[in-house]
Amino acid sequence: MKEFELLRLADLNLIEFWRESSKWIPNTEILETHETVFIDSGIDFPGCSLVFNLAKDPIEQPAEFLTRSKAFFSSRKRGFSLLLRGHCDQNIIQYCKDQKIFLVGDQPGMVLDGKAKGGEAPAGAELRWVNSAKELQNFKEVAAEAFMDLAFPREVSESYFTYAERVLSPFSMLATVYFDGEASCCAMVLLSHGIAGVYWVGTRQKARGNGLAKYCVQEVSNAAFDMGARKVVLQASKFGSPVYPKIGYREFTTYPHFICASK
């Protein structure tokens, strides 16, 4: 796979994750127009409603792009996120910085080109795949606690996993790692466009430092390859970015994330 193909497929998988996971929440609205995807989440939290540019060529009028984005959310009276691509959206990124729009982070986009070789499970750890509402409840509790350290309120994370019939599907896999018998770490992998993306990686505070996230990402990544994925990608948080290279991930782009008011 050539690098430009990887970049395109990674973008498509990322927005597919946001489309799919947003559908887990009732009253979400999704609109795609002018190669732009707007997601108005059913949750009144700007980190969950977003704009994503899918144009292959750089946007020459970033002010117009931002005006359209604000117009969509202004009528809905919501703040929102701009999830941008370091490899394709530099004009928009620079414009946002010039306008002093709040930059939440600049997450590294990472790819695994072949199966991870991270070794055996840490002592006391057991990975279980999520196949029922009860198992999803344990996944939800881990994710809700872990993502508080990424500025996601607990109730926001929990809202994504309320309806098991919406979450569980044949094109995604969720896993929970139990450490000394307690649900302690989680990760999800979503297959689309011939590749897979890893999302919702998190570890409870008291279980950190035991290699659980490394092991969990290793296992869900390898499961994705077993299901036919050509590559596996992820967007690394500040916690994950030093961990994933240890199992073979390499950085190939960045995804700047801005929070924007609608007025």
Account of the protein in words:
The chain is α+β, with helices and mostly antiparallel strands. It has two domains: 3-108 and 254-260, Aminopeptidase; 125-253, Gcn5-related N-acetyltransferase (GNAT) (Aminopeptidase, 3-Layer(aba) Sandwich). The protein contains seven helices and eleven strands. The chain has an eleven-stranded mixed β-sheet, sandwiched between helices. Strand 8 and strand 9 form a beta hairpin.
| CA(first)-CA(last) distance | 42 Å
Tally of structural domains:
2
Poorly predicted runs of 5 or more residues? none
* Proportion of strand residues: 25-35%
Using only CA atoms, what is the Rg? 18 Å
Largest sheet: 11 strands, mixed
Along the chain, the helix and strand elements come as HEEEHEHEEHHHEEEHEE
| Strand line-up in the sheet with most strands | 1-2-3-4-11-5-10-9-8-7-6
Helix content: 25-40%
Q: What's the architecture of the largest domain, going by CATH? A: 3-Layer(aba) Sandwich
**What is the level 1 CATH name of the largest domain?**
Alpha Beta
Structural class: alpha+beta
Rounded average pLDDT: 95
State the main characteristics.
263 residues, alpha+beta, Aminopeptidase, 11-stranded mixed beta sheet, globular
